[in-house]
Amino acid sequence: MPLEFKLRLNAAEVLVAAARARGDKLALANALKDLGNIERRPPSMRETANETYAEAAALYRQLEMPLEAAWTMRHIGINHEYAERLTEAEKYYDQSLALFRKHASDSDDNYANTVRYPAVIKNRLGKREESTTLWEEAVRRYDDMGQPLGVAEGAAWLTVFALENGDQALAHEWFGKAESAARAANDPGTDKFIAEVRARMDIK
What separation in angstroms does the CA of 58 have from each of 28, 72, 108, 110, 186? Predict the structure, then answer.
């Protein structure tokens, strides 16, 4: 374990211990969230991070801070996805999104990302109809927020789904949106994905 990581981890653990000793629930929840953010970096500590995040989420719910709870639950889902535990990831993503549906405003910057994650995992689990609905929502939200990277990714996946359904007209419509957003995003990874989708459409 690198020295710099150890120092950051130790400092975060000290803040957690201090907040716990004071009985300050909000400070403890925030310190636990920060600690989880550090613990999740090495794969070997992701289970520990999940326990840390879960305690933070429980505190946020007690404090009636559902959006903060949703954020921590989404990150538990991310850890499960990294570990290829897709069903567990889906469960946490769905719980996170349910809290957003109930408590967030449409202008919340985290809303689009909270929709994106279950869209991705449901596609990986073969739940294409649910994934399609969520990607359509995510694209709309990213578009409203002026985030072309998210628009490009979502529209590209919707192109793939339309192709698989044999709907060439819809595929071309979504691909046009994906390509335009990708140009604005100027991201190499996104450009690679767009090229792969273009090849599937046999566009020269």
Answer: 11, 10, 22, 20, 39
Query: What are the sequence ranges of the domains in the chain?
Result: 1-104, 105-204
What is the distance between the alpha carbons of residues 203 and 144, in angstroms, rounded to a whole number? Answer: 28
CATH code for the part of the protein at 1-104:
1.25.40.10
- CB within 8 A of 125, min separation 6: which ones? 86, 87, 90
0.85 exceeded by the pTM?
A: yes
- Grouped pLDDT means (10 residues each) for the chain, 204 residues: 93 98 98 98 96 98 98 98 98 98 93 97 97 98 96 98 96 97 96 95 66
Residue that the structure tokens 């953010």 belong to: 37
